[in-house]
């Protein structure tokens, strides 16, 4: 079996995603890149039920799928185009977090509100509702993954990217927490986000060390 380490890592984060309520039932799909291959969840599975050998191998340059008798996620194009669009991406996580979806029902642009959000995620992009699983949605997401590591999908969910699964997963958690904070602040009054200058100051501070410290803190 090729790339057992990547497959095991995928199983680990698939379970965390479910345990943290970021999807329910058979929702969501995740992938990780290894060389020219991506390993993607099969379609219709609850993420935590996927066994290491069931992750679907897809050749990123050609889109060729290694046949193991399971269908790849219906969002295969979204993952494929994402890796093609931004070669720095090592993992992609698509979830349906409830506060993110609620946020997109009333707003589009998620403001940057607190330092960990600025440092770990930065600005979140937005794609209006497009029918799931379509080439159109895949193209729209691929156009955003060069400018943002998190993309809210209107009336649908969230896509995050990272250099690895851990980074993409933490970003999912932070964006969901941000949407939750925004919605509770909005219910109480008018949220006051960080200014552009304050966000840029965090980005300037953002030596790799600072990010790594934050990531370790969040372990
Ligand atoms: C409409 C689907 O739920 C879509 O959002 C899809 O991305 C999903 O979450 C699960 O589909 P797969 O099991 O095919 O990955």
Task: Explain this structure.
The protein is of the alpha+beta class. The protein has one domain: Class II aldolase/adducin N-terminal domain (L-fuculose-1-phosphate Aldolase), CATH 3.40.225. Helices cover 43% and strands 15% of the residues. The protein has eight helices and seven strands; from the N terminus they run αβββαβααβαββααα. Strands 3-2-1-4-7-6-5 form a seven-stranded mixed sheet, with helices on both faces. Strand 5, helix 5 and strand 6 form a beta-alpha-beta unit. Helix 2 runs parallel beside helix 5 and helix 3 packs across helix 6. It is globular, with a radius of gyration of 17 Å. The two termini are 29 Å apart. The mean pLDDT is 94. Bound molecules: the ligand C[C@H](O)[C@@H](O)[C@@H](O)C(=O)COP(=O)(O)O. The site of the ligand C[C@H](O)[C@@H](O)[C@@H](O)C(=O)COP(=O)(O)O has 12 residues, from loops.
Q: Could you describe the largest sheet, including whether it forms a barrel?
A: 7 strands, mixed
Named CATH architecture: 3-Layer(aba) Sandwich
Give the bound compounds.
the ligand C[C@H](O)[C@@H](O)[C@@H](O)C(=O)COP(=O)(O)O
Outline:
globular
- In helices, the fraction of residues equals 40-55%
Mean pLDDT across every amino acid position: 94
CATH topology: L-fuculose-1-phosphate Aldolase
Oligomer: single chain
Portion of residues in beta strands equals 5-15%
Q: What's the order of the H and E elements?
A: HEEEHEHHEHEEHHH
Give the N-terminus to C-terminus distance in angstroms: 29 Å
Q: Numbering strands along the chain, what is their spatial order in the largest sheet?
A: 3-2-1-4-7-6-5
- What's the structural domain tally? 1
CATH class: Alpha Beta
Helical segment count? 8
Evaluate the radius of gyration.
17 Å
Low-confidence stretches: none
Number of separate strands = 7
Pfam family, one: Aldolase_II
EC number: 4.1.2.17
Keywords: Lyase, Metal-binding
Protein name: L-fuculose-phosphate aldolase
């Amino acid at each position: 079996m090729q790339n057992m380490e990547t497959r095991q890592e995928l199983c680990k984060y698939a379970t965390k995603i479910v345990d943290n309520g970021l999807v329910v039932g058979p929702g969501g799909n995740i992938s990780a890149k290894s060389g020219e291959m991506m390993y993607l969840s099969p379609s219709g599975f609850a993420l935590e039920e996927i066994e290491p050998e069931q992750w679907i191998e897809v050749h990123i340059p050609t889109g060729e799928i290694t046949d193991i008798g399971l269908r790849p996620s219906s969002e295969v194009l979204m993952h494929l185009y994402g890796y093609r669009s931004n070669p720095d991406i090592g993992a992609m996580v698509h979830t349906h977090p409830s506060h993110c979806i609620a946020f997109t029902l009333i707003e589009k642009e998620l403001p940057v509100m607190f330092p960990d959000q600025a440092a770990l995620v930065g600005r979140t992009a937005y794609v209006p509702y497009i029918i799931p699983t379509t080439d159109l949605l895949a193209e729209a997401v691929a156009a955003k993954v060069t400018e943002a590591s998190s993309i809210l999908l209107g009336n649908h969910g969230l896509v995050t990217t990272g250099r690895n699964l851990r980074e993409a997963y933490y970003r999912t958690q932070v964006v969901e927490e941000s949407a939750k904070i925004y919605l509770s602040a909005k219910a109480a009054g008018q949220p006051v986000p960080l200014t552009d200058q304050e966000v840029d100051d965090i980005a300037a501070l953002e030596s790799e060390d600072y990010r790594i410290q934050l990531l370790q803190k969040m372990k």
